[in-house]
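__Record contents__

***
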Amino acid sequence: MKVITLTGYKAHELGIFSHNHRGITYIKKAFEQQILALIEEGVEWFLISGQLGVELWAAEVVIKLKQTHPHIQLAVLTPFLEQESQWQEASRKKYHDILEAADFVDSITKRPYEGPAQLRLKNEYLVQKSDGLLVLYDEDKPGSPSYYLEVAKKRQQQEPYDIRLITPHDLEWIAQEDEMNDSVDIDNL
């Protein structure tokens, strides 16, 4: 595997409405663990569509890891032009920072938003262009990642395609580990 698509829920689907929500830390840690494992397996490119939430947080992880793994690359393949036009200013700034740090940026349809067909095309395109999918997903709460998974599972039926899930259980484990580390630090003061 050389290319992996990173995705998951939009921030609002997770009930996250602030850029400093503690849950983002756990999501980033989970992605960092998985991305490091993927780098060890030979993955060089990480793809996102740039949607708010998990994709941008995962992109921040890739950008951070480029400091110690300079051979990895980030591509942002947006479903349409100006997808950030309706976002809040803080989100637009974070998005533009990621675009600046990315190694490749392009729009799949090269047109402004016209309809949901562009989003379906984005899912199909990113799955087609990658060797696997790393997705934050809860089977009890399908949400937007289910569209990626549907396309990925179809591809998996025809040829090898790696699908890796980060689950709520994984995040819970990271949060518990973090709390244990915090309590250990307090005890050592």
In short: The beta strands are 3-7, 45-48, 73-78, 104-107, 132-136, 162-166.
